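Justification of resources, computational component.

The compute hours requested in this renewal are based largely on the per-chain cost of generating structure records like the one below. Each record pairs the submitted sequence with a full C-alpha cell output. That output is archived, and it is also reused by downstream analysis tasks.
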Amino acid sequence: MFIAKNIFVYLLSMLALCLMIIFFNYLGMNETTNLLISSALFGIFITWYYKGSGLCIALFSFFYWAMFVISQSLEVIWMLSVSLIVYLVMTKIVPKLKHIHIGITSNS
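The structure output for this chain reads:
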C-alpha cells in the first residue's frame, strides 16, 4: 500500500508539473521563466514529500529523461539542473542553517 501511495503521489506530481507549465504559458509567462519556476516547484515538492532521500535523484532522473526522449530539447536539461539544485539546497544547506545563531543587539 505504501509503495502504491508513493507511485500515485509521484504520478500526480508529474501531472501537476505539466499543468503548471500549461497554466503559466496560458498566463503569458516567458517560456524560460515558466520552465524554471515549474521545475523548482516540482523539485521542492518531491524533495519535501520523499524527505530528501536518494530516491529523489532517481525520480528526477527518470522523469526528465522521459521528457528529454520525447522533446529532445536542452530545456529539459535546465529543468533537471534546477530540480537537482533545489534538492541539494534543501538537503545540504537548509539543515545547516538551523544551527546558525545570529545575535542582534541594540546599543540604546
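The helical segments are 2-26, 31-49, 55-71, 75-97. The mean pLDDT is 86.
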